[in-house]
Amino acid sequence: MEALLYTKLENNKVKCRVCNHYCVISNHKRGICGVRENQDGVLIALNYEKYISYSVDPIEKKPLYHFMPRTKTYSFASVGCNMSCKWCQNSSISQSPKPDEFIQGIRMSAIEHIVTAKSFRVPSISYTYSEPTIFLEYALDVMKLARENGLKNIWVTNGYMSDETLDLILPYLDAVNVDYKGTNQTYKEYCLGDADSVLKNIRRMIDYGVHVEVTTLVIPGVNDSFKDIEKITDDIAYALGINTIWHISRFFPGYKMLKTEITPLETLKRVEKIGRQKGLKHIYLGNI
Q1: pLDDT score, position 227
Q2: Average pLDDT for residues 129-149, to the nearest whole number?
Q3: What is the pLDDT of residue 275?
Q4: Distance from C-alpha of 77 to C-alpha of 55, rounded to nearest angstrom
Q5: Residues with Cβ < 8 Å from 280, sequence gap 6 or more?
Q6: CA–CA gap between residue 75 and residue 90 (Å, rounded)
């Protein structure tokens, strides 16, 4: 399918506008996400209507603790991601198309997702497991039908989408969990992207009235120093507000960080204490 958000440039190049990378893509090449390809000056979403996984999960697994608690949510994903976090827990699907690998997935239309979700008698659909920003066209088609059929829409995201993408999804978005990974340096060294853009997007979602919860994976040697935690908690408490629901998640070795130790429980408790000192009212420890 032709992508929704891009600009044609000279020499058959295109500029993708789906996320804050704003990739300039040469002919027959793909963007950072691995699923948007320039085909003779037309940007194609290669993962459109191809799901790689679906499941019915407790909503608390997203994690969302203050939105429709004790319900289940129909969850699905396509391959690809606009970040490359070295600890990715779902790297087999998020990183599989990079740089130009086969796009895995099974064909399934938007209406088929609605029918399937309703057959499970769940009240919501979650766009999760990989990064919903990079299957925007697919997600948006499902979101519109979900709204028409009385289903809530939930994104589990890294929050690095463009303003243009937010313009498209906000009218249909009910709840979101955003992964806030750390400082700008953490993003630059380990993930791609930057913290400032993610914070700005979270703030915009809150202002629009979307239910927002934030998750930070605390990783030994990456973002667990006192300086890093001080910055993260300041960002959440002061930029987003002390009523922000914050999940502090425990790291387990994965992807390119198999030799990194599991986050000590004492570290998570220290992070929680700092968050409480900053005035944050809703803090939860995860993966413990």
Answers
A1: 96
A2: 98
A3: 97
A4: 10
A5: 233, 236, 237, 242, 244, 246
A6: 14
